[in-house]
Each structure stands twice: as C-alpha cells, then as structure tokens.
Amino acid sequence: MRELTYVARRTAEWREAPDPVLQSDSDAIVAPVAAAPCDVDSAILAGHGPIPPPFAIGHECVARVVDAGESSRFSPGNLVVVPWAISCGTCDRCAGGLTTHCTSVPHMAMFGAPIGGSWGGLFSDLVRIPWADAMLVPLPGGLDPMAMASASDNWPLAWRLVAPHLRARPGARVLVIARGSIGLYVCDIARALGASDVLYVDPDPAHRAIAEGYGARTAAEIEPVHHGFDLAVESTGRVPELVTALRSLAPEGFCESAGNHFRPGELPLLEMYLTGVTLRVARDNVRAHLPQALELAASGQVDPGRVVSGVFDWEQLPEVLPERHLKPVFVRADQPVGR
Asked: How far is CA 215 from CA 187, 206, 225, in A?
C-alpha cells in the first residue's frame, strides 16, 4: 500500500509501506474514503511543526472497515469515524474521558505524526486501528462523509470548545479569533446552540463570508473589547491574538485556546487575575465526546459542509495538500463514499 509522507516544507509524496495486518482480535483495518487536513497539518506542511520529516501525515477521515478481528463489533463495509488519538478505552484515563492520555500507549500516541510511536497516517490507502471497538465511531446515517471528513478532530474539537459552555451559560456572547476551519465550525455550532452574539475575527474575507453565512458578525481585526464576551475561542496559534481574546472576556469568562502555539509568548496574567478568567490550552479528548458531536451534526441544525473548500481525488494528495486551502477533502475512487 501507499502512505502520504511529509518529506520537506510544502512537499509530500506517496511512499510504499507494507499492508497493515490484524495484530489482535480487537483490531480493524480501514480504508479512508474521505479525508481532510487538520488545521495543524497546514502548519506542519508550512514547516512550523516541532517534528522533522519524514513521516506519514494525516489524522482526519471517515473510513470504511475492510477487515476486523473476531471480537470486534465492526464488519467489512461499515462507515466509521477514526479519532486522531490512539486509546484503549479501558485504562483509568480512558474511563475518565481522557482518551488523549491513554496509559496503554506512549504519551500522545496518534495518527499523522510520530509522537508516542509510529501509527501511520490517515492519508494512507489502509490503516490498522487497535482497540477498534473503543476507538471507532459509526458514522450516523444521513451524514455525508465528505462534509464530515473532519470528524476525527477539528469538528468535534469545535463542539467541545463551545457546546459545554453554552449549556452552562445559555445565550452566552462568543468571540472567535481564528485562521482556519476550527473557528468556522465554532461559529456554526454556537449559532445552533443559542449564543446571543458571535463575533468572528479573521483577516481572510472568504473565511469571514462563511462565518456570516452562519449568522456571525465579522471583523478583519479588533482591539480588545473590555468585558465584551463570556466565551472566547482562539485558534490562530498566535500569542497576540490569544492576548486579545483574554482581554475581551467578561468577569469569570472562559477562553479556549485551540491554536498550536509553537512559539512562546507573554500573557496578561495580572489582568486575567483581576478579571477572574479561566484559560484552557489543551488537545482534545475527541473520542469521549465524538458521539455527542455527531448527534448534533445528524440533527440538521448545523452545516459543516460549508467549510469544505474543495473536493479532490485521492491521487491529487501530493500536489494539492501542500497548497493553501481552508479545508480540502480528498476522496477515493476505489472506495465510494456512499453506503
């Protein structure tokens, strides 16, 4: 089989690899049918990642099961979402919802980067899934795999960034400072779940147009809005934008930072102390809340397909992926996306 390999800045190529095989009765082998780059993949391809190449890239896809161990509940033909992080489902951390911190594997074991071992990437023709029953989530009927190609990471992350807060604070005012798909998904979910105001900040006019289609107000840039928002979501990976988000919070407000901050920076700690805000900077325990996120997607209240910036053939991955796109989706001619 082939796996797409990141080899240098803005360069990826197909490389041959052995076909994966079942290593236990709980494994499954899947073939991605619709896959998308995560926002962090764009940073990696631009040369900003912390890990030098080469390595198999990709950690967002909807896949079709092609083989499964005898103890698995999955069967060939099932359409599934593959969470980005490897988790066993039974250790103490997994049982507590901390699936990104599973103790059965090295810390931060994941698809798409050789952190915590080498698990391959989801831009591969075939992928072995350990603990398939714990990891894989069936794609609900009626959902388009192309629209949900990001359900491994960015889509459920956006759900986690806003949905629990709006449950605790109905009608909250939401600030989104973004540079990619995560912030746009947040706008859609926040609107669907009853935010009283959503302001989306992004210098890209095409991104702002999508946010406006979701019912958000937009701006190319802003100065801090004193006590303006109950929740701020920052997904730029830029510390000045994170500082703006923090300085725009109402007393006891909450800031979710979903940007990958590869560079250090200084935060307004005294202002944060005086306002009593909470800042969370965290990777997502996606498997724990993926079913709830997919339930919202299946309800028809949201439209993640609007964020898809183009649909491309699987064979175009090496040429198209390194280009600048918001959320391209790559589909397999040999693995139809229909059920």
From this structure: 8, 15, 20
Are the beta carbons of 185 and 307 closer than 8 angstroms? yes
pLDDT at position 338, please? 64
pLDDT tens figures, 94-146: 999 999 999 999 999 999 999 899 999 999 999 999 999 999 999 999 999 99
* Phi/psi-derived region of residue 167, left when phi > 0, alpha when psi is between -120 and 50, beta in every other case: alpha
Domains by residue range for the chain, with CATH: 2-152+302-331 (3.90.180.10), 154-281 (3.40.50.720)
| Residue 88 CB partners (closer than 8 Å, separation 6+) | 94, 102, 104, 105, 130, 131, 134
CA–CA distance, 241 with 244 (Å, rounded to integer): 5
pLDDT digits (tens, 9 = 90+) for 192-211: 999 999 999 999 999 999 99
CA-wise closest residue to 335 among 135, 127, 181, 129: 127
Residues whose CB is less than 8 angstroms from the CB of residue 310 and which lie 6 or more positions away in sequence, other chains included: 320, 325, 328, 329
- C-alpha–C-alpha distance, residues 272 and 47, integer Å: 32
Tokens of 311: 């649909």
Parts of the chain with a pLDDT under 50: none
3-state secondary structure 265-308: CCCCHHHHHHHCCEEEECCCCHHHHHHHHHHHHHHCCCCHHHHC
